Protein 1
Amino acid sequence: MEAKPPQGLREGPTVPIATKDLPFLEKVRLKGNLEDIFDARDVTEVVYRVMRDLMTTEAADRVAEELHKPAEITEDKSLQMEIADLWKDTNPIVGLLSRVRPPWQGPGIFKIDSDRFLFRVANEGGLQANVDRELVVKAVFSATKDELSQERIQEIASWLPDHVRELWEKA
């Protein structure tokens, strides 16, 4: 049967794979309308960086504890990582600074509001002009929420600025 499958298997309707059953980065790629899995990986790291900038180190650590699942099932070593690896910053200096500085909220020049959040994702993530940054952020949020407990989902929502929180809740 494997050598010569029935003709019926080559025809007819296909059954879509439920997105909950897809690997993390594939969910981000599909829901964000991204060209490839590497774009999904890169933009996920940036979304996570901006999210961590809004949170205390303790809150970010609680999120990381829940993200220990493969990000993608592949032979490509550059994609063999856990979702928690995406949560941690790949830049060691930025990673260190994010652990020692306070959350970027409240008054001041470093406040991250919804506009700055989306601006940073688009610019730091290298999104092309035709890519909808809100759609991409929602894609990362949706895939992330599939991996987290309800308690962590609510905690993250409490850190997000107004419009970005709406994207989180809709994801």
Protein 2
Amino acid sequence: MKICVAGAAGAFGIKHLDAIAAIDGIEVVSVVGGEPDDIEGFAKERGIPHATKDLAESLARTDVEAVILATPTPVHASQAIQCLEAGKHVLVEIPMADSLADARRLVEVQKNTGLVAMAGHTRRFNPSHQWIRNRIKAGELTIQQMDVQTYFFRRTNMNALGKPRTWTDHLLWHHACHTVDLFQYQTGETASQAFALQGPMHPQLGIAMDMSIGMKVPSGAVCTLSLSFNNKGPLGTFFRYICDNGTYVARYDDLEDGEGNRIDLSGVAVSSNGIELIDREFFSAIKEGREPNASVAQCLPAMETLDRLERCLKADA
């Protein structure tokens, strides 16, 4: 399978390229960059035959079958639709849109084309969260509460590589999206109650730097989510699952019980890399002609809950 990676020189574009290198039968034949990328030099360094700063140029190539979009959040929905309308399968990094209207439009285009369109909800694929899900499906665990902390130190507009961004990140539509989807995915329910509070807006970035979110599903499970761009300390997202039969703490691809004992995840999946696992699911769904886990349609309820949370924040402003 020959594919294109757009946003290839960014932090997550590189993660996808490194993951694809571990997957047999996949060849990156085109990469797309943006300002100020030297995308031609980047492609030459990695032995990729085609590079451009125009996504349409890559989509016009007859050898490109599918696209991975690791581009700025504000263009996710429009670019994913552009890929589908060009006849290409697409995996779009989280979030698939930064508004509910755009998310619904993307889902509608996917239905009309019948192509594979997947959102980059990596937490569904991390072995730590897969282990929890397998026990839930087996009837061995029921979630009582998920307590989640998403903490970064980003008082300037920098990406995960410490390089300046050409766009502004967002706690709600990007970082909260991971947990909103995971909570609803693990419980198998859509939040029936949801609220959000946010701290002061950053004077230059124009975004809230601190946020608190609460959700509850009809069965009674609750989720408490704290997010900050002001945290100068351990960075990342930490998930505490408080269940009827044990407590578990997930840190990306690692898992411990409530007493700090490490849980062996070696048999959960073919890789310990969540990015590689989501890419494998994307390519497998294309080859098998099926809907992938984390299809845009499956992830739409998370976007609906984010919209409710945004309306809550606006009402409180």
